[in-house]
Amino acid sequence: MKPIGIILNRRHYPLLDEGEGEAFIYLHHQQVSLASCSSIIAQYLKNQERVFFLDVSENYPKNIEKLTIQEHEELIDDIHLLVDIYWLDRFGLGGNYINEVIRYNLKHRLGCRYRA
Prior knowledge:
Layout: E1 4-8, E2 11-18, E3 22-28, H1 38-46, E4 49-55, H2 69-85, E5 91-95, H3 100-110
Helix pairs in contact: 2-3
């Protein structure tokens, strides 16, 4: 498992794409390394899901509570673009870098494509 680099709206992210099936996007900050995520990946693969690990460490503060309104909007824009690039009809979202503002806005923008 080696992440690739992806540019979303001029921001670079390490991205790990594993499995097949219904998609799940896992946002994380480097407080959890990609190497230590193997048990999480195994769980999604066991459920026959495709999991995307998106590392937000390069672009956003460690504490999600310190995100500005602009940073929230940028992150939501980047997730939306990732969903469009990979043509995801439906996806779930979780991880150690997610809050209700992000969930609400994705639901508003993407409607039934986002499964809460």
